[in-house]
Design brief:
Number of helices of chain A: 35
Largest interface: A-B, 49 and 49 residues
Distance between the termini of chain A: 38 Å
CATH architecture of one domain in chain A: Alpha-Beta Barrel
EC number (chains A, B): 2.7.9.1
Protein name (chains A, B): Pyruvate, phosphate dikinase
Cofactor (chains A, B): Mg(2+)
Strand content of chain A: 15-25%
Strand order of the largest sheet of chain A: 12-22-21-14-15-16-17-13
Family (chains A, B): Belongs to the PEP-utilizing enzyme family.
CATH superfamily of one domain in chain A: Phosphoenolpyruvate-binding domains
Oligomer: homodimer
GO molecular function (chains A, B): ATP binding; kinase activity; metal ion binding; pyruvate, phosphate dikinase activity
Shape of chain A: elongated
Amino acid sequence: MNKQVYDFNEGNAKMKDILGGKGANLAEMTKLGLPIPKGFTISTQACMSYLNQKEDFSEDLIQEIKSHVKSLQLATGKSFNDSTQLLLVSVRSGAKQSMPGMMDTILNLGLNDGNLSVLAEETGNWVFTLDCYRRLIQMYGNVVAGIPSHYFERCLDKVKTAKGYKNDTDLNCEDWQGIITDFKAIYYKHCQASFPQEPMQQLFGAIAAVFSSWNNERAQVYRELNDIPDNLGTAVNIQEMVYGNTGNQSGTGVAFTRNPSTGENGLFGEYLINAQGEDVVAGVRTPASIDKLATDLPQCYEDLVRLSDLLEKHYCDMQDIEFTIENGKLFILQTRNGKRTAKAAFNIAVSLVNEGLISKEQALMQIEAKSVDQVLHPTFSAEALGAAKLLTDEGLPASPGAASGRVYFDAATAQEKAQAGEKVILLRQETSPEDINGMVVSQAIVTSRGGMTSHAAVVARGMGCCCVVGCSDLEIDEVAELARMNSQTLHAGDYISVDGTEAKIYAGQIAMVPSTGQEAFHTIMDWAREKAKLDVRMNAESKSDIRMGLSFNPAGIGLVRTEHMFFAPERLREMRRFIFSKNAYDQDAALKRILNYQLEDFKTIYEEMQDRPVVIRLLDPPLHEFLPHNNQEISQLAKQLHLTISQLENRMDELAEVNPMLGHRGCRLAISYPNLYKMQAEAIIKSAIIMKEKGLRVKPEIMIPLVGIKEELTSIRAEIVAHIEALLIENKTYIDYSVGAMLEIPRACFIADDLAESADFFSFGTNDLTQLTYGFSRDDAGKFINEYVNRKVLKLDPFQTLDEVGVGKLIEIAVNKARQAKPEMKLGVCGELGGDPRSIAFFHKIGLDYVSCSPFRVPIAQLAAAQAAIQFK
Amino acid sequence: MNKQVYDFNEGNAKMKDILGGKGANLAEMTKLGLPIPKGFTISTQACMSYLNQKEDFSEDLIQEIKSHVKSLQLATGKSFNDSTQLLLVSVRSGAKQSMPGMMDTILNLGLNDGNLSVLAEETGNWVFTLDCYRRLIQMYGNVVAGIPSHYFERCLDKVKTAKGYKNDTDLNCEDWQGIITDFKAIYYKHCQASFPQEPMQQLFGAIAAVFSSWNNERAQVYRELNDIPDNLGTAVNIQEMVYGNTGNQSGTGVAFTRNPSTGENGLFGEYLINAQGEDVVAGVRTPASIDKLATDLPQCYEDLVRLSDLLEKHYCDMQDIEFTIENGKLFILQTRNGKRTAKAAFNIAVSLVNEGLISKEQALMQIEAKSVDQVLHPTFSAEALGAAKLLTDEGLPASPGAASGRVYFDAATAQEKAQAGEKVILLRQETSPEDINGMVVSQAIVTSRGGMTSHAAVVARGMGCCCVVGCSDLEIDEVAELARMNSQTLHAGDYISVDGTEAKIYAGQIAMVPSTGQEAFHTIMDWAREKAKLDVRMNAESKSDIRMGLSFNPAGIGLVRTEHMFFAPERLREMRRFIFSKNAYDQDAALKRILNYQLEDFKTIYEEMQDRPVVIRLLDPPLHEFLPHNNQEISQLAKQLHLTISQLENRMDELAEVNPMLGHRGCRLAISYPNLYKMQAEAIIKSAIIMKEKGLRVKPEIMIPLVGIKEELTSIRAEIVAHIEALLIENKTYIDYSVGAMLEIPRACFIADDLAESADFFSFGTNDLTQLTYGFSRDDAGKFINEYVNRKVLKLDPFQTLDEVGVGKLIEIAVNKARQAKPEMKLGVCGELGGDPRSIAFFHKIGLDYVSCSPFRVPIAQLAAAQAAIQFK
């Protein structure tokens, strides 16, 4: 039989798989000699066995827990049934990965009607004792018996209102006794059983509840959101209680070793005097800043600073520390690597490297690639902001960024509206774990209560979602679905704009501008490009996109979509002239005019990109995409082209397709209209010649799309190359061009070795390849994909993260075949997935040379590529 | 250096690769001691070297040919330059596979102005000698110098008309001398050179022409049509001349050892007295039946019967023999396995087995699977025939079958009209190899001249195309594009109907009925099912299709397309009610009514199929296929369903798809509308219960289409199975059903092992799999696929013959994965390719259990499956 329970002094920080993050760190800190209340941890395996045994404790586990309770009683000199030294414990979950607010905690476990007086005598404080007991009943009732919290809270509020109390600390013994009676009645009513009096019964009930909470809905949502496997289980930590609520020499708080929003070095946090456990995190009372502790309890503050510093150095990362002060003595209850905003993550990582605590590789691994675009969060445009109406700046900047959206007052509505395509902002008094579904779909989160470590703040920072908390001048009426701030009333569906960096809220929508990051960001990106094996290129063709992308230092352009250049009115006209031409002469005349436009296009691109490589994809969409759309356009065009309307319509009917995605497009067009690609090749080469004369070394990479049959590539390539060679001879010059193929048809992957004979490079088009491998049209799948996700038929959207078993397998087959035929062949990816970190890891592992993504995703891809190179050397 | 030239006594029948079919058989017959004019064969490799060396003879080859000419002179005691014993030779092509009419022949080679008198003296016949010389100039002029035949023919016709001659034999010496002068002038005019007088120059010119003819257009078309590789080359046979045109004791003919139309045993053929070489085949003179030879030249006839019998027994197959009689002595010039109609092929194969000449396996291998549907050629319906107007029954039944179509008078027009989708019938005085492109696209071929072995007859039989030749009361004016028969005039584009079995031609179109084959056909099919490893099922759901298919004894139904049952008006109405239902109640009500229809459908199928297995595919098409099509239907439906037109249109807009092929269909429907599949499963099981009560052992195989993700299959299967099990319990009975998946999405192939966990069988849907693997929509590809074929980008249509490298590879991956997970899993194919012989060989090799095809293709598939089992044991 495996050991299932570990005393804190039996473990260490490396045992997170078994002890969970919290348990492993409690063990580590115990080893370091820190002031940690004694206790033990029940392993994650015990949790999984329990869940797999239909939620039943094995006899082995029961015995092992009982024996550790005995040891704890010995070590503390306290006992559940002692008449002088009463053992009370906390029971907390602790999974391998931190899941804030997702799992449940019970404090003060062991109290009952019979031993209340022991605690009261020991502490000399009946108010405290009764408060502890009512908390136990409340937490136990909620977590173990599943009684909604508001039953208890409403009862407490009723007493406070009746007596005119403002704070919980105003209640006296009699009040608490009444409340305890009421709480017990609530408990009985819901459970048809009395609140359990036997401490061991309480203990096993609490352990069972923690185990089961692994599978509650919130936990499942969080795991899905964060790609945490379902079979890890949670550990349970049983720990001797220490009390922050024994009076004004006591308190409880949360401290970060650096500022989690900015990364600034120095203790950052909040605490509450005379409070217990969840009071700070729950955001019920607005806590004080940690700096105030230096004046309130200077010795404790000094201890906290010293221990924080020690922990950060020990873990080589910014720490998120929970502490409790009991009658002037500091106890550390938990430490973990602190969640931080993306901006803070960059600053902290660079600082830690500069301070010599970690290596560049470690720094790169510390930053989640997904979070990169958070530091590049667009901000409000300065002009637009000038005209905007400020509603309030009273809140706290809990998570940076800027967003506009429609306000909603409950998570369900927010979720529903977001699914319908709206940009939503969640407005709540405070958030709780029940709100998670609504939070993940929101552009921004705003609360009227709570501090920088409240649930809303922590979750928002974790998600990179813009957030303002503690907006005290915001009166929210969740039932009436409206909010008032400074005489302005907001109704559900109204637009507001939120600046999470400045903690400002504006009325209406405000235009945004992209950001290009700050110093630490650029330092990290330099390191990333240094370590990465995969080059990162961008998909771009417009001057503005190229300029924006160049600020991220891409290795080149991986995809110029030439069709994007055909839609300006004067070009579209020529394209239509080409499509409707009655003879080869007209057709060539139209192509010649398009050629001149394309010449300018490519010159601009070369000029911007200088000597960086550029892949230009030849025309891809079906011709019917260029047709007129309505009767007015049709009759206008008929006049222009000297055709009858019925001639026009006949040709349009001819071009119509049942499944355009599978139709006459890509290189198939060039089989029917060889001059189309020849024209484009001519523009590419002629513009390169012009740039060469200006002293630029342009190396155009010409890409033929939608190849699925060997002869498509060989014949089109032969025509293009013959045309180019003739041009070069005519111009008595030389251009270092190459001709490759876009692999996006499943069949192409199986013949990649044959295709390699006629291609200088391949670029995988993951969009079409995914569409064809799944038989999903992106245009249509949107209609049923929600049902797929809701019914968990699809876990990850294959258009956002590479499907490794299907699409990935095809790419792997192609890579192997291509390399077999041509070991040095350049291989890349230019679909949406080129900017997805998990997909990039796969592309690194199978040995591609580059990925190409939208300019804005370039830095994410660069970081992901570096991380893949570090992780999969 | 390799040997490139072989004397006839150096080879044998197995050397077809080197000597070609004709050369190998000449060598074999020489070995058997048959009366074969002496000669030698230049190898196929020599041809390829010549073609690869830019059509130049290597010095080695020149020397080798010269040395064999010397040997031939020694063996015959004749010489090119002898003044008494003149050596004249024939030069004929002979590729590995017989290519009738495709390659060219030159006779009488060696004659010149100087040695004419030697031949004349030797034979005592100046008319014959001059006829031989003019033939040489004509053939050499045509084949080597490329002068169109009609120049020579017109010249000959002019003389005949002027002199009032009817036959060539009417011409005297003076006439021939005039013609020779004219022919030489024609030659000089076209070549700007005199007709070559030097025999060796003639010989090398002829060999070069034969070599080059390998690449002429006709040969290329024929090879493409018959899948003959381009790199085989042709051999050249140089053979001492024997003369059929020396007088009435001479002649030339073609004989089959059995009737090539019916298979009837006994010599069958035609001959011409006093004629040479190509006269019979060219159809210029109408020849006499071979039976007449028994009275004309009894000894020769007896020899021919004896030698034919010997050759058939030697080759174990029906022979096609060319012979020449020179002054009463029989020479065999060629033998080969005779081309035959499909009907004859079956009869001959069965006879040869019964006669003990070949085994059943050999019999099965002798019949081309593609030809099976020729014996099942539809015939005219008896009723329709009664009302039809007979135009003529004067022709010869050259190739059986029946067809209606529009008449055209030249190959080019026929080809053009056929490509435009018309059914065409080619009407010609006689056909020549130049007509091949028009012949292959015709439903029937009719000629006014020529016999049963004429070009038209041989080619039509080879292609299984219905053909009537020698229709002497048909006056065809090819220039005016009209034909007269029995006072009726036919213009281009008029419909006629041709019965190739009865040699009857009717006016207009006549309705057709399918045929189910005759005795020998059924014998062969019994043997085929005995030898095949693959079961053959049919795709069918209508009672009439099922009944028709059952006559071919299929192993079951491999595909019931349930959607075909939804289009009858009363069902379509319920389907629309389902689609437009506003609530679950209306939806269920509609489904319940559809359930009742489906119950009857399945009962009928079970009743017809008895205990044979039936695979029923659940609904596959997108819902928009069931929508109303025009405003009238829409407003009618709105009334029926008590909806406004705009409500209807909104829902229709909702259902519209950009790429329906990649849209919301197949099992994706069941994710959104689970009750749809449950309803179908219920109908399948309830009808099975009813049939069980009637004593039938029904084993329905329920197939879920379009699976691409594991969870699709697991969740839908779970729902269906739960529903069925509840039904069975409710009915206190048991049905042996199974649930499988249709694999038609590329991704499904990669996860076949995972899918196998939740499937009892797989059936590959090759249509969709091919569409997705190529990214081709069958609905749209038609528009550009012609260009693909014309430019040889596509060699085989992947929708007609499996693409082994792409689609086949995916299927192979899936088969291996499925068998790994479940070694005994039943695997089949139910797309169009299930009836294609070449694809069936592949499916046999990768170890599928069955193929399923349209009822009419079942016998082809059965034979192909047997052949695959014999060939790939």
